[in-house]
Design a protein that fits this description.
By secondary structure, the protein is mainly beta. It contains four helices and ten strands. It folds into two domains: about 1-55, Thiol Ester Dehydrase, Chain A (Roll); about 75-235, Hotdog Thioesterase (Thiol Ester Dehydrase, Chain A), CATH 3.10.129. A hairpin with a 2-residue loop joins strand 8 (about 190-200) and strand 9 (about 205-215).
Length: about 240
């Protein structure tokens, strides 16, 4: 099963044409297997990934504890409910994001960064889950978990600057995404996605994340660097 991956986003994808995946079999070992994948559209690489797979093994085990001072998901508003309550107070970009239909449901613990320009600590907690059951196939579970782990992560790198990823003068995009899969969990049950951003510089924001089950089990760890570029006005 996949236990870690590191992907690089190089060009925007085109939803109108198929993606060709070129797979390089780097190594087939007794316990570990490594693959390199390049996604190609219009004859150009748009994404590359290296992934490592391991057979199940029993060994030493520990994990960091889940934060204990976080309100549970049942006490928080969904994005649809937030839209109804705060829709007039948030920027249009955030409003459109909340309105969009998606197979992932999220409940942010903190709302201040949506409604304020105050410079905040670059941390946040999000409750997240799929809107329906995911097949009990390890590969599919890992793919869906990797997909949802990209959501909201880069936003955290803007909080210390009183900015939002949806600001019209910010160009934002994922640059690379690394992930380590620790333990299995039903993805249609709530998971706490705790995030922090140690650094933003050079038009790049760096953010880390941990995904916990409600019982405190650490499911996965994530790290991402993304483009956070201030757009120049035509006069500049």
């Amino acid at each position: 099963y996949v236990h870690s991956l590191h992907g690089y986003f190089m060009r925007p994808g085109d939803t109108k044409v198929p993606i060709v995946y070129e797979v390089d079999r780097i190594r087939d070992g007794g316990s570990f297997t490594t693959r390199r994948v390049v996604a190609v559209q219009h004859g150009q690489a748009i994404f590359s990934l290296e992934a490592s797979f391991q057979q199940d093994e029993v060994g030493l085990e520990h994990q960091v504890p889940m934060p204990q001072d976080v309100p549970g998901p049942d006490t928080l508003l969904s994005q649809r409910e937030l839209l109804g309550k705060f829709g007039e107070a948030v920027p249009d970009g955030i409003k459109r994001y909340w309105e969009r239909d998606r197979p992932i449901e999220m409940k942010p613990v903190m709302l201040k960064h949506y409604t304020s320009r105050e410079k905040l600590e670059p941390k946040q907690n999000i409750w997240i889950r799929t809107t329906g059951p995911v097949p009990a196939d390890h590969a599919i579970q890992a793919a869906v978990l990797a997909y949802l782990s990209d959501m909201t992560l880069l936003d955290t790198s803007t909080f210390a600057h009183g900015r939002a990823i949806f600001d019209r003068d910010i160009q934002a995009a994922s640059l690379d995404h690394a992930m380590w899969f620790h333990r299995s969990h039903a993805l249609d049950d709530w998971m706490l996605y705790t995030q922090d951003s140690p650094s933003t510089q050079g038009s790049r924001g760096f953010t880390r994340g941990s995904l916990f089950a409600r019982d405190g089990t650490l499911i996965a760890s994530v790290a991402q660097e993304g483009l956070i570029r201030l757009k120049r006005s035509p006069a500049e």
